[in-house]
Write a structure and sequence with these properties.
heterodimer; A: mainly beta; six-stranded mixed sheet; B: four-stranded antiparallel sheet; 47% strand
């Protein structure tokens, strides 16, 4: 079993839709979490950190449930430019700050 | 400010040939990472450097892979000999310090080298 698992994709949604991505992690030593965005044939870029209290950045909302070892990302009012692969990432401090990436979920926003 | 630079961007070789990838991190970033990304998967860490010291190489297949960061700045990752299964994107990343120590220390990724082994 992978340490970080994500919903299989792709997600195909119309512009303006709300879409949610789910992610689970198995290593209880995971202490911080992030969502990265990766455009086709480009490098991953940090989208946002995920805090226990939940956090929002414009149209993006991230949630963390430590009891369930579950992370989510909600995108409201989807734009064509949101089309990308979204990577769920866990940071394991006791392994020297090692990032563990999920396999990614592809999002395609259509006009 | 320049980002992480990698070269070459693309490389096609025949199996059993050697190949090398080069990475120049963001200026001032002490921590450097090499990742492997297979198609449809997330990046997987191969090796992490703190300055010139390899502090985590547990995922590096040492029978054929080697890496160096002699002066604590740029780095080279080598595969010798390459196998068909090595076809992937090799990503380099850097951060000011180890991610998670004294702050998040975001990792910034380079554009990667796409390797095809025939």
């Amino acid at each position: 079993r992978k340490e970080v698992e994500q919903d299989p994709g792709p997600f195909n949604v119309p512009e303006g839709a709300t879409v949610a991505f789910n992610c689970t992690y198995s290593n209880s030593a995971s202490q911080s979490f992030f969502w990265y965005r990766q455009d086709c044939r480009k490098e991953p870029k940090l989208l946002m950190s995920v805090y226990s209290s939940g956090n929002e950045d414009g149209r993006f909302t991230a949630q963390l449930n430590r009891a369930s070892q579950y992370i989510s990302l909600l995108i409201r009012d989807s734009k064509l430019s949101d089309s990308a692969t979204y990577l769920c990432v866990a940071l394991i401090y006791n392994q020297g700050g090692k990032l563990i990436f999920g396999q990614g979920t592809e999002l395609s926003v259509k006009p | 400010e320049a980002g992480v630079v990698q070269s070459p961007r693309y490389k096609i070789i025949e199996k059993k040939q050697p190949v090398a990838f080069w990475c120049n991190p963001i200026s001032g970033h002490n921590t450097l990472y090499w990742y492997l990304q297979n198609l449809g998967q997330g990046p997987e860490l191969l090796i992490r450097y703190e300055n010139e010291e390899a502090v985590d190489d547990s995922q590096l297949p040492k029978d054929r892979f080697s890496a160096e960061r002699l002066k604590g700045v740029d780095s080279t990752l080598k595969i010798q000999p390459a196998e068909l299964g090595d076809s992937a994107v090799y990503l380099c990343a850097s951060s000011l310090g180890p991610t998670g120590s004294g702050g998040i220390n975001e990792q910034f990724f380079g554009p990667g080298t796409r390797l095809t082994v025939l």
